[in-house]
Amino acid sequence: MEKSFETELAAVRPKVLSLARQFVRASGLRMEAEDIAQEALVRLWTACRDGAEIRSIEAWATTVTKNLCISQLRKHCKFSVSSIPETLPSPDSASSAIETDESQRAVAAALQQIPEGTRQLLKLRTAGMSLDEIAAATGRPKGSVKSSISAARKQIIKALNEA
Fold first, then answer.
1. In whole angstroms, how far apart are CA 3 and each of 17, 38, 61?
2. pLDDT digits (tens, 9 = 90+) for 119-131
3. Residue 139 gets which letter from DSSP?
4. In this structure, is the dihedral angle defined by the CA atoms of residues 111, 112, 114 and 118, taken in order, positive or negative?
5. Gap between the Cα atoms of 150 and 14, Å rounded
6. Residue 59 and residue 38 share a domain
7. What is the domain extent for residue 144?
8. How many CB atoms lie within 10 A of CB 84?
């Protein structure tokens, strides 16, 4: 006998809420896990109502929840990065200012050579998140996060040494 949509939705809700709670705890962001879970379930309901073919409600809901969590994290990171002043306090000498400016350009150029997803991992790591927190927030295995960050760092160092 096939389960009704409401029954399947009720069965998947605890898993979605648990995933959202893990993200909120790991990211340290001030948001409600309940809001993320509710948004994921509303999107699921809307997709079903609109006739989307969903083979596994649990898999679909989990994916949507992870994507919502990552979107929230990206919004927070953009806000945090944009709140940092673009200019540093002026150095004592003009040559220090030129060296600082050149260094910043070299790092920015090196970062542009790294894929966007890996740049996001670096931003999260430099923002103080642990590997476990990043893995929970992005849904990637901890080993994958660690190796991506390590490879990116090596690529940046190589680019800076060549500059």
1. 21, 21, 16
2. 888 888 887 888 8
3. T
4. positive
5. 35
6. yes
7. 94-162
8. 7
